[in-house]
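Reopening closed ticket. The problem is back. First fold of the pair:
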Amino acid sequence: MVDIDPGDAPRTVATVKHPTRLAEAIDRDGAVPPEAIGRLVRAVASSVHAATAHDIDELIAFATSAVRDAPNREQIVARVAAATGLRLGSLTGTDEARLVFAAARAWHGWSAGPLLVADIGGGSLEIAHGSGDTPETALSLPLGAGRLTREHLPGDPPSRKHVRRLQRHVHDHLRDATTGLRPANALAVGTSRTFTQLARLTGAPRRKAGPYVKRELKRKRLRAQIPVLAATSTAERAELPGVSRPRARQILAGAITAEAVMTVLDLPRIRICPWAVREGIVLHRLQALRGAPDLDLTHLTWTNPRARPLRIVPAL
């Protein structure tokens, strides 16, 4: 939750977080099963409760690829609405990439020059590139860590055969999708929890060092960790530096995707950015207050009539 005011930086008021692990739970047809929908309902209900308790003015509820691409999307949205009174909106993959880019640009500033931004989510990978405040290229690819784990890495740990097949799949998909993208002289930036945890796994400073400490993910060190992750179980990965228990199962697929991005786009290192899609939405709303939004996200807004100060809650 943040207070926003034109001319000021967003000020964090509180944070509410409930892992839903939707991307890992999706079945072979892409549908979200009932038990995972239940986790989502509980997470949204907690967010609505927290938003109401803090008298927020607007709650911006958005669902990313796990819900956006699900064949039972309308059932999910209806069940959440019936239980919480809140109707989930959804972002297109392209808009998600643009918002991530906006967050990275705001964090790093104009002095960073051109940016190449990558974000590994549960269901999709977003890549954006440009020299302005909006990207010239914005891609969303079905290469999220949860999706790839579910579809390509059976077993705990998976077999070497499955790991090699996934590496080829991700590299081939990225080469085809990024043909013509040449991020020469761009600052390579990684957002999302996956990049952050991989950086910590390969030696970046701990979280308690604060958000302004420089953190990087180096390709050479990342490559050395992939065989380690591939040979360990989910429980063993959760004991490694920086790897959280909820993401331990999918961190191998995340590492494979991150390494492929760095190899295909020839990036020796990626700078870690603590801002991502949530902050991109907050910044977009701040632009709207100034009268100059670059995206129409009004379909994501829920208004609390009992609110007093203007506060924004990116809920999911």
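Second fold of the pair, where the issue appears:
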Amino acid sequence: MGLSTIPIPDSFSRRISRISGGRDWLARVPELVEARLTEWDLELALVPGQLPWNGHGALVVPVKEKRNDDDGTAVLKIAFPHAEATVEAAALRLWGGNGSVRLLREDPASCTLLLERLGAESSLQKAPMDLAAQVWGGLVRQLSLVPDHRPEWNEFEHIAALAERFSDELPADWEMLGRPFPRWLLEAALEVCQTRGAVGRRFSKDVLVHTDFHYLNILARVQDSGGPAVEDYLAIDPQAMIGEAEFAVAPLLWNRIGDLSPAGPEAALVERCEVFSLVAGLDPDVSRQWAIVREVENALSYASQPAHRGDFQRSLWVAGTMAGRQVPGLPAALTLPEPGEA
């Protein structure tokens, strides 16, 4: 396949094109890929008709070494330059393949990484919840490194500092957007920001945190036969920060809402928060608190976007459930869209 004909998924192209500088970056993707293939002596391993995998801000292309006859043991990840992309390599270097995908090579100037190839269809998105909890909890224990002398630690923002910033930004955004949800929910988030941002930083244990650690960001190594074992699963796509590990629980709550019990989805979501926290050795109440903050912040980011009305409602439902009080006027929980579906 010619390099200039690398197919870019339409949904990814539309998403990036809406970002400032996105169209110019998309036009440069073939050049960026060609440079890395040449420098690292690689060739594409896309089969005819296969599209590159993609996330919110990156393309992932299977590749192989030119001198190797296998079907492709690595992937080239080309990210649109943004804050999370710039710290991904630092986190992967610290983890060193222990609980995470292995980083093989990197080119910071182009936000391009060469990574161990995992099974693209082997995420935890459809796995039984008991397996998902076991895998997720074990990985959190592996990934929760304590800061040391290595220079990579200087790359990450502190979660407590983020909370302190939210103390100013959330009420300002809430007012600017016309108070799009009840004040009590905003105040619940601000209370967490004040306690976990100041007191929490002094009395909690700081670790490296994968802040987007949901089911789709856990993949298994490619298997020759049979299904993957628990130990085969690894984390991908870290949006890493330093702080309380409980900050990582929230994405589990705003994904797979449709799997909750229709007889009592609120109680089921609270139970999910508790189960995953305990399996990982975390404090369920601290996980619940951080989920309120994160979903209030998400709700405010969606509030000004009519196309994300469903995402806005989902964030309010999760935040209210974690706060123990429902926001009025929301659709039934199990009808809320999954992230990316709205």
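Update: turned out to be a display glitch only; the data is intact. Residues 183-203 form the longest helix (21 residues). The CA atoms of residues 271 and 340 lie 25 Å apart. Please close again.
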